[in-house]
Amino acid sequence: MSEFEGEARAVTLITGGSSGIGAAAARQLLKGGGRVAVTGRDQDRLDRLAKELGAPDELLTLVADSTQPEAVRDSVAATVARFGRLDNAVANAGYATHDDLADGDPSGWRDMVLTNVLGPALLINAALPQLRRSRGRIVLVGSVAGVKNTPGNIYGATKWAVTGLAENTRLLVTGDGIGVTLVAPGRVQTPFWDNRAEGVPDGGLLTAEQIAEAIVWAIQQPSGVDVNTMVIRPVGQPV
User: Which residues pair with 103 in a beta bridge?
Assistant: First the structure.
């Protein structure tokens, strides 16, 4: 929460916020009176989100590639220009190629690694000057795959990197009064599964809204409270 105003007016920047967990978090923050900027690579998706939410003045949509340093810096700058400050940065952009070391297609790995690992690092780098002013919060959306090993999982390796990035960032910024939370979901019903040959796994699934509730809860903790790690599985997911 910012030192400038109450949490209801806090400003949150969410990468990959045009669908899934990011869009659900934006929806909940806006409903609670917050102000939200969301980035995404697809203008049409961003436009659909804005239309769905009624295109409020409290929402800023930005076409930006989370793997490009200048685009991330520009997103932070645009958010501050629009709303006057930045209180929370949520590194949500990410995806899986749904293959493995033995049988996967390496041509798809580079962008996944850059999106899942470099993207959050770039957001932290760009947002820190503003978050030091607001004594704000950083949320990194990781995965159960980043706390539990699975055979040959390239996506999991990227999320292990996010797990390490979260703690390394906390150690860097906790003295500045900035909170850092890793939210590591299990299986969630989102577009994440769209490109998986086998489709959505059998068994229980969380909703994007449930993970968004965890993100919102973390960033709205009282000043001085830093929730560091949340691993959230649906009941019935064994690993």
Answer: none
The position carrying tokens 């990410």 is 94
Phi, psi angles (nearest 5°) of residue 147 = -130, -10
- Active site annotation includes 95: no
Q: Is residue 1 part of a domain?
A: no
Per annotation, catalytic residue among 83, 95, 155, 160: 155
In a domain, 38, yes or no: yes
Separate counts of helices (H) and strands (E) for the chain: 7, 9
pLDDT over 80 (residue 43)? yes
State the DSSP string of 53-93. Answer: TT--TTEEEEE--TT-HHHHHHHHHHHHHHHS---EEEE--
Residue 239, domain member (yes or no): no
Q: Which runs of consecutive H residues, i.e. helices, occur in the chain? A: 20-31, 43-52, 69-83, 109-113, 119-134, 154-173, 208-219
The SS3 call for residue 202 is: coil
Residues in the chain: 239
DSSP state of 153: B
* pTM for this prediction: 0.93
| 58 lies in some domain | yes
Q: What is the pLDDT of residues 104-113, one digit of tens each?
A: 999 999 999 9
Question: Count of domains in the chain?
Answer: 1
